Give the backbone structure.
Amino acid sequence: MTDQHELATTTVAEPIPDPGLPEHLPRPTDVDPAAEKRAERQVATLFGLSSIFALLTCVAYFTIDGDDTFLDMGAQNVAFGGLLGGALLCIGFGAIQWSRKLMSDHEIVEYRHSASSPEEDRTEAVAAFETGLADSGIARRSLVRNSLLGALATLGLPGIVFLRDLGPLPGDTLAHTVWKKGMRVVQDVDGAEIKPSDMVIGQLVNAEPAIFFEENAEGEPEIHGAELQAAKAKAAVILVRMHPNDIKPAKGRENWGVDGILCYSKICTHVGCPISLWEQQTHHLLCPCHQSTFDLADNGKVVFGPAGRHLPQLPLAVDDEGYLIATSDFTEPVGPSYWERNRSDLT
């Protein structure tokens, strides 16, 4: 028992005198300046090829159509994968070639000590790092260093270019929707046009602008694809009908409703959730996400929850055939609040 305890507590102060490593042999690049220069050019060439592949990725983004195919696969994706893969492989192969032929290949011995880090160890670690930096030759091999930096820099260009696929910058897009003067308000399911007589007091109707159901001369929708989805997300509205005596319109909004029918954006001003939880008796509209509550009888004013702005209201009228129409676009941005948005909440 004593012998086992002594063995367990005994520490080896020095490494094994002969761990069995073969005698160190110099590499061709260690003794032949021409071989060293040749290896340096090889590494720089690989890093340079990486830069070319990264630049070609950017070129492919703008020159290959997204609908083109290659071997039944998207040609753009094939090009992106192949070219970016080549850029990364060239950096990897260049780093391997650099380490095998140009960096120091001497064995490094590291003593194992306790987990504590005394000042001597920290000084030794810094010295080891500086030694490794010197052995790598990155300071004196400007060709390798600069080509590596160029490869790493250009490798980031495709990532910047791909940001374009996130869509256009928002700008003032939230300040405008497809609503315009004279556009009819229709039900969001079947596009049925709505007359004031179609709604009863206490009713809520989910609605959209009629343009989403209109077709051009070829019988195709006026708006389609991604443009349609973006437009729908901003233009969605709700219609509610209340007793006219319950409505407290703000100054300038006295004629924004029709026989007690008001129209508001369906998008919560907190984080943009769609809302339609309607309390007929209180005239409150609740957001299911974070319980923001808006009083639709009082200009969409926030009465509870985290939302910081009232619901934008769409002014209504009726056309010559008696259908509900918008008299303009929203007069303020729709959707969630953001820093640049001017605060003009109704008081």
In short: Residues 1-10 have pLDDT under 50 and may be disordered. The longest strand covers residues 204-209. Residues 33-63 form the longest helix (31 residues).
